[in-house]
Amino acid sequence: MTTLGKRTGGQLIVEALKANGVSRVSCVPGESYLAVLDALYESGIETVVCRQEGGAAMMADTWGRLTGEPGICMVTRGPGATNASAGLHVARQDSIPMILFIGQVQRDAREREAFQEVEYRRAFTEFAKWVGEIDDARRIPEFVTRAFAVATSGRPGPVVLTLPEDMLVEEVEAPEAKAYTPVENHPGRKQMEKFTDLLANAKRPMFILGGTRWSEAAVASFKNFAESLKVPVGCSFRRQMLFDHTSSSYAGDVGIGINPALSKEIKESDLIVLVGARMSEMPSSGYTMLDIPYPSQTLVHVFPEAEELGRIYRPDLAICAAPEDFVGALAELKMDANPAWAERTSAMHEAYLKWSTPPKTGPGNVQMGPIMDWIEANVPEDAIFTNGAGNYATWVHRFHRFRRFNTQAAPTSGSMGYGLPAAVAAKHLFPAREVICFAGDGCFMMHGQEFITAVRYGLPIITVLVNNGTYGTIRMHQEREYPGRVSATDLVNPDFVAYAKAFGGHGELVEKTEDFGPAFERARASGKAAIIEIKLDAEAITPARTLTQIRNKS
Ligand SMILES: Cc1ncc(C[n+]2csc(CCOP(=O)(O)OP(=O)(O)O)c2C)c(N)n1
């Protein structure tokens, strides 16, 4: 066994992180893991200090999401951990590799409900792929390297490691940590033969992409495949960046408020190929798109974890492979396009183009349609868009034409407050790229404190804050179910321009559509983290229907 000599538990944690290639962690400090904080001092690992653990965990999620390597977050016990659970849940539902380290009470105080004590193996099992507690500092390299392997293998997800305070100050000799070994999973030859056969015999095939374990090369290679065979491709909810929307094969977003023409085509397909997607509640329009458990279409399901294959939908062909490994095998496929596919695919792309053309009008003085047109014309195609949850997000999802891999960070769990910490994390990773956070007035205030983190680290993100004075999504459902009875959905807001300035950022107010472009240019030129507050009439609740129309069912 090679050891580095006597080390504290805190030092061993940091050495194991370095051995696994970590260069950055997010955290909110706590007295429960001072020994790790001390080991981070002069370690060369950048420590991003956040203002609330939910935001810190969401930043780690974004790093995991945009790199494929686990994002690392450190928080204190009890209240720190429960705050961080918001980000843990996002990573779980989105299959994102992430490791959350939580300080824990000292070993001899456990199970007494000591100060801020939680037994995380009981509390977080449903939130994480694995929850481990490191009892013996000698086993730190084993636990940490395993955490990397678990977080990234099969269906990726978050891992929680808890660190008893007294274990972290113990001085021990432990094995030198080594980097984890990534686990690939490729489709078999027979499976690819069957796949070829099913595709060759399909008259109305449809590909739906989703999930994680994609790469820039895999996305490019899949685009070549789809365009050369002229098959239609949709992207699952909040996974639009997996396929170039300007490609002649792009059929649209399989998400909330799906284009009815696309939904019809999916239902009438004779072959569905899900690549990395789970086709869960949102993309399946509330589990109505494919029959459960036996879809009427022939189903090929490609997913990196065996347990998911056949869990909801019985596939005719189950391929246990990561999307990038499956796409690698597709590149070897020798087959010709069926001429019947081309016409349908091009009609589907035409329908998508029409569906994704923003409306020019709407209630109030500000029109989101022309604002989206401005963004499309003026924002580079590698710009990264982030958002949380709210009706405002529809404008991005439906009208922004995603072109490239890694230009989107958005939670399929519909977690409000995700967009701002995600933008901070994305800008950290890609300082040269424009990062635009879309938020509602409700969504922004859930993690609005992380605006100071953007300012502190000199990260000039641009937040487009769509302020309609209401928790709009819920108001919309409320008007539909309980017309005219507005309960708990209206909001009183701060002056967001003053908020931006008070935090040391740049603020702009948009009260007329034509103010948006110049405001965006000034925000860009400021070189600071910026908030552009758009005052949107609450009536403009969806691109197609007003609140009044929803209330009156007209
Ligand atoms: C953390 C969290 N809390 C509550 C909800 C329920 N929820 C979904 S959308 C929404 C309102 C969002 O309001 P806002 O950000 O102002 O956007 P708008 O819908 O008005 O455009 C709420 C409360 C949620 N998805 N996530």
What are the key terms here?
554 residues, alpha/beta, Rossmann fold, 3 domains, six-stranded parallel sheet, 21 helices, 18% strand, globular, binds thiamine diphosphate, Thiamin_PyroP_enz_TPP-bd_dom, TPP_enzyme_TPP-bd, TPP_enz
Morphology: globular
Sheet with most strands:
6 strands, parallel
Tell me the quaternary state: single chain
Q: Which strand order does the major sheet show?
A: 3-2-4-5-7-6
Low-confidence stretches: none
Q: Give a list of the ligands.
A: thiamine diphosphate
**Would you give the CATH topology of the largest domain?**
Rossmann fold
Main CATH class of the largest domain:
Alpha Beta
The chain-level mean pLDDT equals: 97
The CATH superfamily of the largest domain is identified as Thiamin diphosphate (ThDP)-binding fold, Pyr/PP domains
CATH architecture descriptor text of the largest domain: 3-Layer(aba) Sandwich
Radius of gyration: 24 Å
Tally of separate helices: 21
Helicity level, as a percent range?
25-40%
Q: State the domain count.
A: 3
